[in-house]
Design a protein that fits this description.
InterPro entries: OPRT, PRTase-like, PRTase_dom. The chain is α/β, with parallel strands linked by helices and about 230 residues long. It contains nine helices and eleven strands. The protein has one domain: 3-Layer(aba) Sandwich (Rossmann fold). It is globular and about 55 Å long.
């Protein structure tokens, strides 16, 4: 399989604006005595709740407008060749629907578990055979859940080569190669370095918390293992 560019992140200034919006909303939660354990098994000192964007009209409008502009510029054949947007259950449903509205495209969503029978049991909505879609979710760590979602879409006869997330941590080893090997290009509105920079500029983030975040950033795998999570 031909390897495409793996990740397209916005300009540093725009990524900083998205990170700042998340930080301003209080979407970045820092662990106290117990680390956060993601569904993927990774232990982390931080949890980013992008769902807070949903209830802030100004912030969500600004971020979704950025997403639509980015996709128009970076998804090949968007106007002529993309048939629909597919959102991930659950956060990807709202984000995907708002983006689909801006781009004038149909919207569907992918369930976490099948409901019904057949290859399309996880996909809610209707598409022609061989339709090309863009998959939307909120956050990615090591890329594995996005690969699994793409595999489910492909099993239903859908073509998917592009995935958009609000936040890509971008620090987990092997994620870039993993996505590229599956023919997926990841579009991220911001990344962990930009979010960490936003946290540094806030007085509420203590020196002890920043030191812990720096240790996590330097080696997220070792940090996870040391705090009861999975390794690479």
């Amino acid at each position: 399989m031909q390897t495409p560019p793996q990740t397209t992140i916005l300009s540093s200034a725009t990524a900083s604006r998205v990170a700042g919006a998340l930080a301003d909303l209080g979407a970045v939660r820092l662990a106290g005595g117990q680390p956060f354990i993601y569904t993927s098994g990774w232990a982390s000192p931080v949890y980013v709740d992008t769902r807070l964007l949903m209830s802030d009209v100004e912030a969500r409008t600004r971020v979704m407008d950025i997403a639509a502009r980015h996709l128009r510029a970076h998804v090949a054949g968007l106007d002529a060749g993309l048939d629909a947007i597919v959102g991930a259950e659950s956060t990807g449903i709202a984000f995907g629907a708002w983006i689909a509205e801006r781009l004038g495209l149909p919207f569907l969503y992918l369930r976490k578990k099948p409901m019904g029978w057949g290859n399309a049991a996880r996909l809610e909505g209707r598409l022609p055979a061989g339709a090309r879609v863009l998959f939307v979710d909120d956050v990615t760590t090591d890329g594995r859940s996005k690969i699994a979602a793409a595999a489910a879409l492909r099993q239903s006869g859908t073509r998917v080569a592009d995935v958009l997330v609000v936040l890509d941590y971008g620090i987990y080893p092997g994620s870039a190669a993993r996505l590229a090997d599956e023919g997926l290009t990841l579009h991220a509105l911001t990344d962990w370095p930009a979010l960490l920079a936003a946290l540094r500029g806030r007085a509420a983030t203590s020196p002890e918390a920043l030191a812990n975040l720096d240790a996590f950033t330097a080696d997220p795998v070792a940090w996870s293992v040391a705090n009861g999570g999975v390794g690479a």
